[in-house]
Amino acid sequence: MHDFTPISALAGGALIGLASVWLLAADGRIAGVSTIVHGIFSSPRDRWRMAFVAGLLLAGFAWQAAGAPVPLRAGFPLGWAALAGLLVGFGTRMGSGCTSGHGVCGLGRMSLRSLVAVIAFMATGMLSAYVTRHLLGVAS
Amino acid sequence: MSALGAGFLFGIGLWLSGMANPKKVLGFLDVAGDWDASLMFVMGGAVAVTAIAFRFVLKRDKPFFSETFHLPLKKSIDLPLVAGSALFGIGWGIAGYCPGPALTALSTLSAESMVFVAAMIGGGILHRALEGKER
Predict the structure, then answer these.
(1) Are the Cβ atoms of A12 and B45 closer than 8 angstroms?
(2) Which of A59, B3, B109, B124 could form a disulfide with A93 if both were Cys (CB 3.0 to 4.6 A apart)?
(3) A1 in a domain, yes or no?
(4) CA A62 from centre of chain
(5) Which residues 6+ apart lie within 8 Å of A79 measured at CB?
(6) B22-29 vs B79-95: helix axis angle to the nearest 10?
(7) Under a CB-based contact definition with an 8 Å cutoff, are residues B19 and B25 in contact?
(8) pLDDT of residue B135
């Protein structure tokens, strides 16, 4: 097992948790990224969603401006990226959340619904990574 | 705007933790490969913070800059929850992106992140359209 980075993972995770606490304490909102993104298109008048997504983007630019390492993946097939995006968009809308909403926030609220969702997407995520990488040989 | 700051901090957390690196995410999901368990610590660190702090936050009458807490009301474990989450996982395991990392990765201007995010938005709109037809 190389590339094991528990310290930065734990610290980054704590920042994600703090950001979620901040959004709930300040605006009373759940930091569920999929629900936020879908909400931009179903109720565009709520500005806070746009602001949160703008913050996510700014973080990416700031990270690169600071010269921190940016892992770029070359040659991942765009057709697979499109299929994956479609499944993620459709599935998170149908299942009311993703890794942040069900994972970070839902588990933090001890929600049974979220626990079931996390188990479901972790299980199919692992299965899907196995099938696409080992059986279908998708380069990633 | 406090939501801008929260999004920014969330995004920095994604980069620092490795979640914004789809190769690392797939290295975690692919338990049959050269397994990298790091991302378990991301969820662990995040949930440790929310599980403790949410209790104190939700004891307050209302948030600082809003009149009420907007919390999910559904409690039932139903088919859309399980099937939707399962579909999401399949997409996550293909490309290594979940919604947050995909959005912050747009800042790299990579073709894969742009295609993924466009399709993700399309997938959400498609679900809404199909749901509307059923009613």
Answers:
(1) yes
(2) B124
(3) no
(4) 19
(5) none
(6) 120
(7) yes
(8) 57
Task: Choose among A18, A39, A111: nearest CA to B14.
Answer: A18
Mean pLDDT of chain A: 94
Residue in B15, B70, B121 nearest the CB of A89: B121
A114, two tokens: 């979220």
Domain that holds residue A113: 6-135
For the cut 60, the answer to whether the pLDDT of residue A1 exceeds it is no
The number of distinct structural domains making up chain A is 1
Question: Which amino acid is located at B39 in the chain?
Answer: L
Interface mutation vs chain A, best among B74, B75, B112, B126, most A CBs within 10 Å? B112
CA distance B16 to chain A (A): 5
Largest CA distance in chain B: 49
Give the global pTM. 0.96
Confidence (pLDDT) at B129: 93
